[in-house]
Amino acid sequence: MAKRIRLGVLLSGGGRTLQNFLDRIDRGELPAEVAVVIASLSKTGGEERARKRGIPAHVVRRKDYQTLEAFSEAINRILDGAKVDLVCLAGFMVLWKIPPRYEGKVMNIHPALIPSFCGDKMYGHLVHEAVVRRGVKVAGCTVHFADNEYDRGPIIIQKAVPVRFEDTPEEVAARVFEAECEAYPEAIRLFAEGRLEIVDGRVRIR
């Protein structure tokens, strides 16, 4: 039986992934509540979605802090204050240094099948452009536990989608996002049920 967990959602854009969480919570499909939203830019769509739902929303901009450590600590204080059980990166485009107390409690979703098309400078639409350019036949998404290196943490769930010769990057992106909308809530449910275990850098689903 899954317990209802408190989520902290970090984002930098329109908040489509946040909206997916909220929709599934509303339908009783996700045993969670969004306790706080942190945006890395002012006036993001994601921040507005949160405020309309009465969810505490904060803007923490990297340029307002002299060091990565100061920026990260500002985020940590907000998450600590909200007493979150799990942090979900939802298109958060800024490096956040994850403190030891949040190890194994931070998830990220990447719009490719890691270890392909991932790492620094490989995000968002750049991924889908690279997928089409390379001519791969299968793309997809990966939900993984995040650490302090891009796209390196232990993989939780992957979902694949076909890539057709005629596809544009936009068409691949739409297909991958549909998979993301299933994969991320599934990973959160597994976490809430206590079924995820990190063993030697890999995730075992119990």
Look at the structure and give the mean pLDDT.
95
Helix proportion: 25-40%
Question: How much strand content do the residues show?
Answer: 25-35%
Name of the CATH architecture of the largest domain: 3-Layer(aba) Sandwich
CATH topology of the largest domain: Rossmann fold
Strand order of the largest sheet: 3-2-1-4-5-6-7
Structural class: alpha/beta
The number of helices is 5
Q: Report the C-alpha radius of gyration, rounded.
A: 16 Å
Largest sheet: 7 strands, mixed
Oligomer: single chain
SSE order, one letter for each helix or strand:
EHEHEHEEHEEHEE
Overall 3D shape:
globular
How many structural units, i.e. domains? 2
Q: Unreliable runs, pLDDT <50, ≥5 residues?
A: none
CATH class of the largest domain: Alpha Beta
Span from first to last CA? 13 Å
What does this structure look like?
- This protein is an alpha/beta fold.
- It folds into two domains: 1-102, Rossmann fold (3-Layer(aba) Sandwich); 108-206, Formyl transferase, N-terminal domain (Rossmann fold), CATH 3.40.50.170.
- It is 33% helix and 25% strand.
- It has five helices and nine strands; from the N terminus they run βαβαβαββαββαββ.
- The chain has helices spanning 16-26, 45-52, 68-82, 124-134, 169-192; strands at residues 5-11, 32-39, 57-59, 86-90, 106-110, 138-145, 155-162, 196-199, 202-205.
- Strands 3-2-1-4-5-6-7 form a seven-stranded mixed beta sheet, with helices on both faces. A two-stranded antiparallel sheet has the order 8-9.
- Helix 4 (124-134) crosses helix 5 (169-192).
